[in-house]
């Protein structure tokens, strides 16, 4: 029996248990994948406890992807590059941290759209943890990247991912007059911010983020592929707006599924039934 789970806080709405459990069943693997709500001060004991109990692995989500690093014995190059871990394997007595977020992001575009980032130019909106994974992956795939973020200083911190090579990675201030001149050169626009995400009603009442756009609609051109890594709602206002502008669009369901696919490859070296994972996610979303 394989024991697996996801640790986070909050965790109640995670789609990972439904997705992984459905795949385990379809693959004929005897296993349990559960969601665990962990308090920040219990993060170390949670990881060590899972190891002691013989878990195969864990997924790690908000807010622990960076905080979990001190409890790991080893990082893969992918995790080391972005100092973020979303997948842990307990293997040979060691706790190994890996990140499948970037590879999952790229695999989704490849498998859903046949899209290859190599030689393209991307505009990444946002500079948080998700942006770090996406930007590192784009750079690894020889894509040129512009980053824009509400807090410009945070975007500047990401420049280190390209070793300060401004030909490959540059920050553009978020004001429309700064973005406008580059949009004709941009092939793909990627929203990694939480702007547009479904919030509970109380949060939405104070700050209706799902009614906002990450960048002004006027900046979008029909030549752009527009990717929103948000999966709830499946069709954000940003994607709806982009479609009206004639852009090709992709939502965050694919990244969610493919980061899980890549976790299976890391744990067992096998590819799970991808269609089953998509179906489990689609069935769990409103
Ligand atoms: P994650 O790890 O999921 O990327 P994060 O690290 O909290 O989450 O990053 C959230 C991103 O969404 C940031 O780029 C944030 O911008 P700031 O760096 O300026 O905070 C962006 N973001 C969140 N709410 C926003 C809003 N209302 N308008 C613009 N950007 C927003």
Would you write up a description of this structure?
The structure is a single chain. This protein has two domains: 2-99 and 257-284, Leucine Dehydrogenase, chain A, domain 1 (Rossmann fold); 102-251, Rossmann fold (3-Layer(aba) Sandwich), CATH 3.40.50. The strands form two sheets. It has a six-stranded mixed sheet with strand order 2-1-3-5-6-4, with helices on both faces. It has a six-stranded parallel sheet with strand order 9-8-7-10-11-12, sandwiched between helices. It contains eleven helices and twelve strands. Helix 1 packs antiparallel against helix 11 and helix 10 crosses helix 11 (274-284). It starts with a strand and ends with a helix. It is globular, with a radius of gyration of 19 Å. It is α/β, with parallel strands linked by helices and 286 residues long. The site of 2'-monophosphoadenosine-5'-diphosphate has 15 residues, from helix 5.
């Amino acid at each position: 029996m394989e024991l697996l789970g996801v640790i986070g806080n909050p965790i109640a709405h995670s789609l990972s248990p439904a997705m992984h459990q459905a795949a385990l069943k379809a693959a004929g693997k005897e296993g349990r994948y559960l969601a665990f709500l962990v308090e920040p001060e219990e993060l170390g004991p949670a990881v060590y406890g899972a190891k002691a109990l013989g878990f195969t692995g864990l997924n790690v989500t908000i807010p622990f992807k960076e905080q979990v690093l001190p409890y790991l014995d080893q990082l893969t190059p992918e995790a080391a590059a972005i100092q973020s871990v979303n997948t842990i394997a307990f293997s040979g007595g060691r706790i190994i941290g890996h990140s499948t977020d970037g590879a999952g992001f790229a695999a989704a575009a490849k498998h859903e759209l046949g899209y290859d980032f190599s030689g393209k130019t991307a505009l990444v909106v946002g500079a948080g943890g998700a942006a770090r994974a996406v930007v590192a992956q784009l750079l690894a795939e020889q894509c040129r990247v512009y980053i824009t973020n509400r807090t410009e200083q945070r975007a500047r911190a990401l420049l280190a991912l390209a070793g300060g090579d401004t030909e490959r990675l540059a920050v553009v201030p978020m004001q429309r007059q700064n973005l406008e001149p580059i949009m004709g050169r941009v092939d793909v626009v990627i929203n990694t911010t939480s702007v547009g995400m479904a919030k509970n009603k109380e949060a939405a009442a104070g700050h209706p983020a799902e009614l906002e756009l990450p960048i002004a609609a006027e900046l979008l051109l029909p030549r752009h592929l527009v990717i929103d890594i948000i999966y709830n709602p499946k069709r954000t206002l940003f994607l709806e707006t982009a479609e009206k502008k004639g852009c090709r669009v992709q939502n965050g369901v694919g990244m969610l599924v493919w980061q899980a696919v890549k976790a299976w490859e890391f744990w067992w070296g096998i590819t799970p039934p991808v269609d089953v994972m998509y179906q489990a996610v689609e069935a769990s979303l409103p």
